[in-house]
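Interim report to the steering committee. The following record documents the input for N-acetylglucosamine repressor (397 residues).
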Amino acid sequence: MNQNQLQILKLIRDNKYMSRMDLAKALNVTPAAMCRIIKHFLEKEIIIEDSCAPSTGGRKATMLTINNQKLGSILSISLAPNKIFFSTGTFTGDILYKKQFPINNRENILNFILEKSEEIIKELENISAISIIVNGLVNEKKGVSIFSPHYQWHDVPLKTIFTEKFNLPVLVENEVRAMGMCEKILGECKDVNNFVLINVSEGIGSCIFTNGKVYHGHGSIAGEIGHIIMDRTSIRKCSCGKRGCLEAEASNSAIINKLTSQIKLNNYSLLKDTLKIKGFLDIEDILYGVKERDFLSTKAATEAITTIAHSIDMIISLINPEKIVLMGDLFQDKFLSNTLTLEIEKVILDEQKYKLIISKLFKNIYYYTGIALGMYSLFSNKEFTQNIFFINNMEVN
């Protein structure tokens, strides 16, 4: 496929439906030339015509869409710290099936996802690709989980294991980069080529998009913002072994640990009884404390927000993104998100223009990450695209 053909297919994929005229205008191609290319794709059954699809107004045009029935669907496996999310979806982003499971046995987690994947593939059929999303360090080219702290995985060849088991194309990616792909294809950054997504959860990570593509960096470990040292005097040790990292100072886990320590020192907090009854606190408890204006909860959360603001200042100065997308529980609280904006404004230069956006995909993000990876890779990853066409008996010149 040449570049024009790939661009056409990407536009149809990302917009779900497009007319021939819209495609010609978008790519500055003559209508006659566009019709020739579209005819070729229709003959190869890569796309189909849909007269019932929504139009952009005026005379109803015949719209073009990806032939999902021919291409099949993507099985997405997203491994969060305490849950595993399974979903299937089309190459245009429609979720067909979703289910989550708690992680009860971390030592047997690989066998568990293999067994569940086999059940889903047998039950649903028409699955033509598998996407595996895992936290930690990932070599996406080799499909290897280099290190996943939550599961204590070291150099696990996920792509090889799943390819040999199911004989399907397999993609493996880091969870935050997959979140960035979600925003690029399905979310707030469809028309943005340069942006950074920051995810704050048990850890902190980021995804960098430059010129419309994910930046992986040398060794595929770009975006590890959580391990930038923010406080060299800190005694808080990070999972990476360093002290004072952003993750150790401002992640959900860090906030919970700070507040728990203060309560155990007999400092008053509205959450004291909650800790006594449950034996632990979670981020929802912290946000409840902030909402109820509990002093210690608010102090721990705002200190974290201030630290995150300073890290965003570094990103703005270094990368100069058009948008920064925020993913995480903390940013769902209006007081904390407003505090973040104010703290950033205190430290950035007047000339540094950016947009700060809270992700609208947050609640269902783990169901979409693997689907977005499959969508992003189709027509971008040559090996993956060829394999998808091959298993579906599709020939493309």
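The mean pLDDT is 92. The committee is asked to note this result when reviewing the revised timeline.
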